[in-house]
């Protein structure tokens, strides 16, 4: 459907991006690492079309062309089966680039879960420990 197309949405001089690759999990699809947010020429954002130029087809030709070729911009990903693992590439990237905890309670719960996962990684050899002895954990 159209909802899974990554395209600019144009209204007069305003360009906003529809970025479904950022919320695929909500719809039961396997979540990929989202692409970077495209340039939407912020100079056009927030204009209402009553001021300045009205030659939007010329000014926004690049975005109009993208819209016209929208069928080639569909996000294709398999249906999610089961739960995503802690070390899924999406979650690894999320932990590197996002705010992890919104509340003190969330921070406590998240830190405990992360600590347990790190202990698990140590015991399975996923994390190299060098000279440290973790036999007591195993």
TrEMBL record:
Domain Aminotransferase-like plant mobile: 3-94
Stored InterPro entries: AminoTfrase-like_pln_mobile, MAIN-like
Protein name, as recorded: Aminotransferase-like plant mobile domain-containing protein
PANTHER family: PROTEIN MAIN-LIKE 2, PROTEIN MAINTENANCE OF MERISTEMS-LIKE
GO biological process: meristem maintenance
């Amino acid at each position: 459907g159209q909802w899974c197309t990554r395209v600019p949405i144009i209204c007069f001089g305003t360009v906003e991006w529809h970025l479904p690759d950022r919320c695929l999990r909500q719809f039961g699809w396997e979540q990929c690492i989202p692409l970077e947010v495209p340039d939407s020429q912020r100079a056009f954002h927030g204009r209402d079309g009553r001021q300045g130029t009205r030659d939007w087809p010329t000014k926004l030709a690049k975005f109009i062309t993208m819209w016209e070729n929208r069928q080639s911009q569909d996000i294709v990903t398999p249906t999610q089966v089961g739960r995503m693992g802690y070390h899924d590439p999406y979650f690894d990237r999320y932990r590197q680039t996002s705010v992890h905890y919104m509340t003190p309670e969330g921070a406590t719960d998240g830190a405990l879960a992360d600590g347990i996962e790190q202990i698990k990684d140590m015991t399975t050899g996923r994390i190299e420990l060098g000279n440290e002895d973790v036999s007591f954990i195993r």
